[in-house]
Amino acid sequence: MVNTGDLRERARRWRLAADATRAESAMLMKVSELSWRSPSAQEFRRLIARRVRELRELADREDAVADLLDRVAGEAERAA
To answer: What are phi and psi of 11, to 5 degrees?
Structure first.
């Protein structure tokens, strides 16, 4: 049986994952801001922009999972 402490720990790990995802996204944004002059630079920036969007969406989903786990833990504590 999973207890509320386990749920809160899982929520904490999901939040850490969301933070790591956001950090990766920020790093990619910095890379995309480099001024390259090759013909493929625009395509590279387009691919990075898409990946950054995907990472931001992933981080939002990771936060949503963490919020849900916290709510379930809170309800379980109130029910106990």
So the answer is: -60, -40
Residue 7 CB contacts under 8 Å (≥ 6 apart), including other chains: 69, 70, 72, 73, 76
Terminal CA-CA length for the chain: 14
- 40: tokens are 């493929």
Q: Specify the pLDDT at position 1.
A: 64
DSSP character for 4? H
- DSSP letter at 76 equals H
Between the alpha carbon of residue 27 and those of residues 22, 31, 69, 78, the distances in Å are 9, 6, 28, 41
- Sequential DSSP letters for 5-55: HHHHHHHHHHHHHHHHHHHHHHHHHHHHTS---STTHHHHHHHHHHHHHHH
Residue 16 or 38, more confident: 16
Rg value, the chain, Cα: 18
